[in-house]
Amino acid sequence: MKLSGQVAVVTGAAGGIGRATALAFAEQGIKVVVADINAQGGAETVSLIEAAGGTAVFVSCDVRDEEQVKQLVATTVETYGSLDYAFNNAGIEMENQRLHDGSMRSFDMIMDVNVKGVWLCMKYQLQHMLKQGSGAIVNAASVAGLGAAPKMAVYAASKHAVLGLTRTAAIEYARKNIRVNAICPAVIDTAMYQRVCEMDPKIGQRIPELHPMGRVGRVEEIAASVLYLCSDGAGFTTGHALTVDGGMTAV
Q: Has residue 209 been placed in a domain?
């Protein structure tokens, strides 16, 4: 899983999958730009990378804000000289209701972060990668983007949209030495998952059984999949939605 580039940007890197992926990049000798709206969590990710001998910097970025995203890319290039890999991971999920009970606030927030955020990040990442003549982008989708997600209609719609953006960009830039793929995890053991389990232990007991492997995924497993999609080993892979779900979608 050789990585020929030198610099990676990870959004939503203050914890969970984003932090694990930032650490995984750093372990491969990649300089990492840690981006998040959570400054404390972002600083902790940088500290973990540096403690392990890696190189990283934190940049505060709200992916809904075009100027902040533009500055994130500019800071990356100014600091490290290139932008070789991007993991557009920042996202939210704030639904637990049927579609007819949904609110405009929830709809706008989910779409702004999960869809507009990915679009803005790719827009400015691609502008630099075109000048550079190379690059690999991975967008965080979900198994919810491959089918239905009861009581999470807007979240599901946002992840379907991420896959549409991913596949279209992959085709548009396929001959520019830029690859664009997506990762589609099932339920992963993150702080959000732990909060759900604490609020309703019965749900916590049922969720692992939704996966044929009998457990939820680990953040390190998603990170490894992201690095594979960025690596030279995936050099002929673009426009792909890599499902990492413990067999959930195979049922």
A: no
